[in-house]
Design a protein that fits this description.
By secondary structure, the protein is an alpha/beta fold. The longest helix has 26 residues.
Length: about 450
């Protein structure tokens, strides 16, 4: 086996145009990439999904306009990269993908229907286009290497839950070993797609929004990679959102558990599901900016040299609070089971939860509150109170539930900002609480100043 197998993932902004692709190609060369996973060019996936929606509604002119925009953008990138001059087959591949885009869009317009399977087939074109073009960009930069295009569908096996397909990890590992047995042992660099997969029956699937990072982590796990590098448009993971706190700074290193909590509770750099495969395989993850590759970034490791009380903070807006009350809870068992059975039947996840003798309070995303079946089913069991327009603040660090005086410092920093609910104790890495939505950003700024700026 090779001494190292390096998987690098580039997001949409890193594929934005020919210049961005060439810059990302140089990073691949500098960081000894063996397998490169790319997203669709910036904004393309949104356009493709909009084409599906517009086609269903019969908006022919706007659909054709978006198809034209996608074709023009990718044709310009191809032209800037001298695409097809050395390999006419590549030009045929590009034309075939653009023709498929037109065919699928016309089919949806004709049928006035876009099934989840059709949407996945359409959405997959974005990554197929960007990977084809990026292979050319990387070939120009890495002239001493052979650059091969790998159709990820040959290795990314999933179920048939179109739009949010679940990977079959054992099959992915088997197929990776079958198709890439000598990865890292020669001068070959493979370029492949994120976000998309394939069922056992050969149908194209997608892993859902944010699925490109997840794909890269799954592929890294599948080949037992030495490292997974995720290149985006920010220099690593910050102590909080710099747009809210100008003094937020990049974190040099963070543990998997801290990063996972941060992703789940609102940090935008990583999708919450991304880290799970890397955690399972204990593969270190680096997050950096393809626009500033020399500026450093954040390493996510199993263990770090330091373990500060508070490492970072995040907030999630548009939260709802559901409070369930009934005297039946008093000294009875089975009530929580009935509650979570209802949430399970309605496919609703809960973020934070607290209980008292006769009440249970839990936070959910505000979009959940439009589910009338959920509120109806809960109302048959107990009294239901719903509050909206709340913000969930999370403080991520170490030994949070074993540190005396932490709550005093938090409430001192918040001052006159009222806290609606607290959830603390379930994790040593997280202290989270709810505030009114219009006070969330100010609460974050006060806490960041107290804990991370001094």
């Amino acid at each position: 086996m090779s001494a190292s197998r390096n998987v690098l993932k580039f997001g949409g902004t890193s594929m934005a145009d020919a210049q961005a692709m060439l810059r990302s190609g140089q990073i691949c060369l500098d960081h000894h990439a063996h397998l490169v996973v790319v997203s669709a060019t910036s904004g393309t996936t949104n356009q493709l999904l909009e084409i599906a929606s517009l086609g269903e509604q019969g908006h022919r002119d706007r659909t054709h306009e978006l198809v034209g925009q996608i074709k023009k953008k990718h044709s310009l990138i191809a032209q800037d990269l001298n695409f097809g001059k050395a390999d006419l087959n590549s030009l045929d591949d590009l034309d075939e993908l653009l023709s498929e885009l037109t065919t699928l869009a016309e089919g949806i317009l004709l049928m006035r229907e876009a099934s989840s399977r059709a949407r996945d087939r359409l959405a997959a074109i974005g990554e197929s286009l960007s990977s084809l073009l990026f292979r050319q960009a990387l070939s120009l930069v890495a002239s001493n290497h052979e650059v091969r295009l790998l159709d990820v569908r040959s290795v990314m096996r999933t179920d048939d839950n179109f739009g949010q397909a679940r990977p079959i990890t054992d099959e992915i590992k088997r197929l990776m070993n079958k198709h890439l047995p000598t990865l890292g042992e020669d001068e070959v660099i493979y370029v492949t797609q994120g976000f998309i997969g394939e069922t056992e029956d050969g149908f194209t699937t997608t892993l859902g929004r944010g699925g490109s990072d997840y794909s890269a982590a799954l592929l890294a796990e599948g080949i037992q990679a030495s490292v997974l590098e995720i290149w985006t448009d920010v220099t690593g993971i910050a102590t909080t959102d710099p747009r809210l706190c100008p003094k937020a700074r990049s974190i040099p290193e963070i543990t998997f558990k801290e990063a996972a909590e941060l992703a789940v509770f609102g940090a935008k750099v990583l999708h919450p599901t991304t880290l799970a495969p890397a955690m399972r395989a204990r593969i270190p993850v680096f997050v950096g900016s393809s626009y500033e590759p020399k500026a450093g970034g954040t390493w996510i490791r199993w263990q770090t040299q330091d373990a500060p009380l508070v490492r970072a903070m995040a907030l999630r807006k548009n939260q709802g609070l559901i409070t369930l009350s009934t005297p039946k809870m008093l000294n009875q068992y089975g009530f929580l089971y009935e509650i979570f059975k209802i949430f399970n039947q309605n496919q609703v996840s809960v973020d934070a939860i607290t209980t008292s003798e006769i009440s249970v309070a839990m936070t959910v995303d505000a979009s959940v509150l439009t589910n009338k079946n959920l509120t109806r089913d809960l109302s048959e069991l107990c009294e239901v109170k719903i509050e909206q327009n709340l913000t969930l603040i999370s403080m991520i660090g170490n030994n949070i539930n074993h540190t005396a005086g932490l709550a005093l410092s938090i409430f001192g920093a918040l001052g006159n900002i009222n806290v609606r609910m607290i959830c603390q104790g379930a994790s040593i890495h997280n202290f989270c609480f709810l505030v009114e939505g219009n006070e969330g950003e100010e609460a974050l700024r006060r806490l960041h100043k107290t804990f991370l700026e001094n």
